[in-house]
Structure to design on (302 residues):
């Protein structure tokens, strides 16, 4: 009989994430400890549960059948344990959120300190990444996403600013040397510091003004991973190397300090703010219910 639930959870995390490193990032564990836990479980059961190659990890037939049976069973266990929270003055336990890097920087700092002060027995775990993932599959309770990336069958509530803008910016040194563009298409003649998604896609820079919309694919000396290394692009812009395009809220401190200047501000496009989203087909854990209620009760974003 298998008695180590931690090994079972390790197997679930690896199978859901399709990789040991990916599961490690989602759970805060090392890939080696997860590998050892899965190996221990396989030895106890006497059957291989995961096929491992240098490029991928996938359940065997036995592993897939075990996964199908374990997931609903463990959800019932979690729900049963969570019922204990109803007997407490305040809920306790772990709440796991999967959010884009921009939300961890621009949204959560305005919410998390007050939430943790109100619920001292809740432990908040935040995984920040910009790849599109199934929050349940990576072991999280909820996520933050923008409306174009929300999954179906999810409940979504507003969190953070309801309108945001993308902004272009450069240092005064760069603009004095290379000129200040007056129309977005002029950026094609400038050094632009670009961002790339984990999928490899490089999004266009979008602008709009007085009914005119412009999309361009500028070029430049630097390409960074969106979210994870955006600060590098900002630092390079501050140093005078080129023009950066990022969330206005991200760049605002640099404007205030005079390290960057707005570029093409009348053309900055607006877009709707992010949402907290979570599964709508199951009972909410008490920790998530507390967070949802806390977010709903917050005053309108300033």
């Amino acid at each position: 009989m298998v008695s180590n639930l931690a090994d079972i959870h390790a197997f679930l995390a690896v199978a859901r994430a399709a990789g040991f490193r990916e599961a490690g990032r989602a759970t805060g564990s090392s890939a080696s400890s997860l590998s050892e836990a899965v190996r221990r479980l396989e030895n106890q059961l006497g059957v291989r549960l995961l096929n491992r190659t240098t490029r991928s990890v996938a359940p065997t037939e036995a592993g897939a059948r075990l996964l199908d049976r374990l997931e609903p069973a463990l959800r019932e266990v979690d729900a049963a344990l969570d019922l204990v929270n109803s007997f407490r003055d305040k809920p306790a336990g772990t709440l796991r959120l999967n959010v884009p890097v921009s939300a961890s920087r621009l949204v959560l700092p305005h919410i998390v300190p007050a939430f943790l002060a109100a619920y001292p027995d809740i432990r908040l775990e935040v995984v920040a990444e910009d790849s599109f993932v199934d929050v349940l599959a990576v072991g999280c309770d909820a996520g933050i996403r923008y409306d174009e990336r929300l999954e179906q069958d999810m409940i979504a509530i507003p969190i953070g600013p309801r309108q945001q803008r993308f902004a272009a910016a450069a240092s005064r040194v760069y603009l004095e040397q290379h000129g200040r563009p007056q129309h977005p298409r002029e950026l094609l003649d400038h050094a632009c510091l670009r961002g790339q998604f984990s999928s490899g896609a490089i999004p266009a820079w979008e602008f709009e003004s007085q009914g005119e919309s412009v999309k361009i694919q500028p070029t430049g000396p630097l390409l960074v991973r969106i979210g994870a290394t955006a600060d590098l692009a900002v630092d390079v812009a501050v140093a005078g190397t080129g023009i950066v395009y990022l969330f206005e809220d991200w760049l605002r401190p640099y404007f205030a300090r005079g390290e960057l200047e707005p570029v093409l501000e009348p053309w900055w496009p607006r877009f709707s703010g992010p949402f907290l989203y979570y599964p709508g087909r199951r009972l909410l854990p008490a920790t998530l219910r507390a967070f949802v209620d806390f977010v709903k009760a917050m005053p309108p974003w300033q």
